[in-house]
Amino acid sequence: MANSRKSPPIFTLYRGFKGTGHYVWSPFVVKVEARLRFAGLSYRNEAGSPMSGPRGKIPYLTVSFPDPAPQPPSTLADSTFISRQLVSEGWADDLNADLSPFEQAQDLSIRALLEDKLYFYGVYERWEQNYYTMRPGTLAALPYPMQVVVGAIAYRKTHSTLYGQGTGRLTPKEITGLKTQVWESVEAMLSEARGKSRGKKGLFWLLGKNEPTEADTTLFGFIASGLVCAAAPETKNLLKNFPTIMQYAQGIHDRYFPDYEQWE
Q1: CA–CA separation, 12 vs 74, rounded Å?
Q2: In terms of C-beta density within 10 A (0-12 exposed, 13-18 middle, 19 or more buried), how is residue 245 classed?
Q3: Which residue among 43, 150, 190, 193 is least enclosed by CB atoms within 10 Å?
């Protein structure tokens, strides 16, 4: 049921990183930020931590109303369900409402490719290949001794997850090849979409529509976070070799994130 309150909600996004005015290393955080901005919703950023989130991970979003009677904020978690609740509460339009069943399946497949496949290749690159960059980058809020302890726990958990999921059983060369294949496919899709799109000047969308779909929030999250993450140099170099991907990301940045520092 849509929310019937008259006063607009106050959204606070917990990103796991201190500061504002810049992208963070998590693709799911940037995904939620893109979803909010595509909907024209204002929000503020806070650091937060996975331990404070209702699902034990970043990002999470709190929603509060200043009047008529202030209430404790409600907390939304998981990037997919955050988007769904924004729609169900009437705070945002459904980006996929006008898609055909086939197009909705395409959109879902793209999100699954990125979130359930490419994500693990990125985790391997960050935690297995660039651990000593990843640890201080993600645990900067902790004093150094705690970074060592918490980082070791996080590494062991991540290593076990990757092995169980399957990525950890592959060689680095195999993982690079699979990761490259995903980005090559994305480049091809965007190249085709660019010719179809009649969206705002400088913008084009993954399915070739005039407006973004949910897949665009996910894709931009993976591109922007990959370009700014110091623990993902291979991904950054890969992305920079795909001109259509870079043009796509530049258009979204210029239109929706002009207040953010751009990737180098």
Answers
A1: 10
A2: buried
A3: 150
The 3-class secondary structure across 233-260, one letter per residue, is HHHHHHHHCCHHHHHHHHHHHHHHCCCC
Band (196; pLDDT cuts 50, 70, 90): confident
Q: How far apart are the C-alpha atoms of 35 and 218, rounded to whole Å?
A: 9
Cβ atoms within 10 A of the Cβ of 95, count?
Answer: 22
pLDDT at 53: 84
In degrees, rounded to 5, the angle at the alpha carbon of residue 123 between the alpha carbons of residues 128 and 144 is: 65
- Backbone phi, then psi, for 61, in 5-degree steps? -130, 130
Q: What pLDDT score was predicted for residue 1? A: 39
Average pLDDT, the chain: 93
* H helix or E strand, kind and range, residue 134: helix 131-138
Q: Which two tokens stand for residue 125?
A: 């690159």
Cβ-in-10-Å burial (0-12, 13-18, 19+) of 4 comes to exposed
- Are 213 and 96 in contact by the 8 Å Cβ rule? The answer is yes
How far apart (Å, rounded) are the C-alpha atoms in residues 188 and 186?
A: 5
Average pLDDT, integer, range 177-184: 98
CA distance linking residue 39 with residue 95, whole number of Å = 9
Cis peptide before 68 (omega within 30 of 0): yes
Question: How much is the pLDDT for 72?
Answer: 78
d(CA 185, CA 189): 6
pTM of structure: 0.93
Query: Strand 10-14 and strand 43-46: pairing?
Result: parallel
The C-alpha atoms of residue 13 and residue 26 are separated, in whole angstroms, by: 13
Looking only at the bridges linking them, the beta strands covering 43-46 and 60-64 are unpaired
